Amino acid sequence: MRTEQTTPSATAAVGAPGGADRAARRAVTVFPVLVLAAGAVGLAAPDAFAGWKPSVPYLLGVVMFCMGLTMTPADFQGVARRPWAVALGLVAHYVIMPGLGWLVAHALDLSPQLAAGVILVGCAPSGTASNVVTYLARGDVALSVSVATVSTMVAPLVTPPLTLLLAGEYLPVDAGSMVTDILKTVLLPVVAGLLVRLFLGRYVDRALGALPWLSAATIAVIVAVVVAGSAAAIKSAAALVLLAVVLHNGLGLALGYGAGRLARLGAPASRAMAFEVGMQNSGLAASLATAHFSPLAALPAAIFSVWHNVSGSLVAAWMAHKDKAGRAPSSPSGD
């Protein structure tokens, strides 16, 4: 599985439910706390991160390289085995979340910078912590991995034009430059990590346990830089941005699940669809917003980075509880 924002391997966890499940839950719990703490540091001491803005794309490249290191050819074989379900997940992701971002921005009458930031979050590929959250929800992990992989690979072709189409009314969007940035900060590091895994797999395997934490720490630094860059505006805008993020993420989870049920994919696959649609690569959105718009436009991505892990974990726990309750034997009559 991959890391963004990130967590231990969900596919590995399936093979060893005890310890891996505990490790997955621990990472999903710790990551939002770490990112929230980083945001607080950026808000309290913005001067400490002065001049860090140019480092954000390189930090994202580290996260994406770690993602590539966790990938295997099996991730791509899953696409070939279930092309219809993966295609549905991909279309749902890149239709529902960008559309919701535009609707939320209009409904809340967000300023141009914040509106562009919310839309950019919606146009980003799947948030890769979705894999482990799908596992914790007892969803279809293989489908989740396949959709996340493909959505990341096609991001250079899909994210810039969608951003231009939906956010262009708010701010100028240089889609060509955005394509180049996504290639450099996402696709190339992911491919490099995948190649390293293929040729040096036995060495990489020894470090797999540390990769999620390295990614989480790097994302936390990105959030601190983003928050520091817009610290002056956060006090007046934070509540509104949080509302936008909660609506965007919550509706995405619900509509993603609904798309799976409407397509009759079954409950496990529908759960995977929920998280693949509702959870975004907010690290990429923050990097692109910082580079192409402003630190204020990156604020929705920074808040989304915390919130979607919290909401995803809660929804996954609720889904898993429903499963357990459904399997519980009925009490004998008279007891």
UniProtKB/TrEMBL annotation:
GO terms for cellular component: membrane. The chain crosses the membrane at residues 27-49, 55-72, 84-108, 114-134, 141-162, 182-200, 212-234, 240-260. This is BASS family bile acid:Na+ symporter. It is a multi-pass membrane protein. It is found in: Membrane. Pfam families: SBF. Keywords: Membrane, Transmembrane, Transmembrane helix. It comes from the Bacteria. Its main location: membrane. InterPro entries: BilAc:Na_symport/Acr3 (IPR002657), Bilac:Na_transpt (IPR004710), Na+/solute_symporter_sf (IPR038770). PANTHER family: P3 PROTEIN-RELATED, SODIUM-BILE ACID COTRANSPORTER. The keyword Transferase does not apply.
